[in-house]
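Following up on my earlier thread - several people asked me to post the actual chain instead of describing it. Fair enough. Here it is, all 125 residues.
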Amino acid sequence: MKLQPDKSNAPVINAYDRAWIEVNGIRYGQSLSVTSLPEIQPAFWGGSHFETLDQSHFRPWAQMGVELVLFGSGQKLRFAKPHWVQDLINQGIGVETMDTAAACRTYNILASEGRKVVALLLIES
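Reply from S.P.:
Thanks for posting it. Predicted structure:
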């Protein structure tokens, strides 16, 4: 049996801190979305505070073709309000909430497996 490492063209989260996330060698200092979908680049997402999030921050991903949304809620675990993710659930898209550090690690694993995943990563200023 020949074993080969998983290869993916998806962006990779190289490093993270409470104030930044590095994707493919580029450091971002604000909340961002990172997805394994090849046509979508990492981009500003959300805002700078959990309290300012709403359904409009999650809704666009219901039509993007992802199978799983990872919500990185900042330094501590805070669950998305059910109405924020209702459009995703109605489309049969999985939603997992974790702190941002855990979401970064989980994204890398799922993207390397070829999964259609997006990480919505909150960096609070």
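Strands lie at 13-17, 20-23, 26-28, 32-35, 43-44, 68-72, 94-98, 117-121. That should answer part of your original question.
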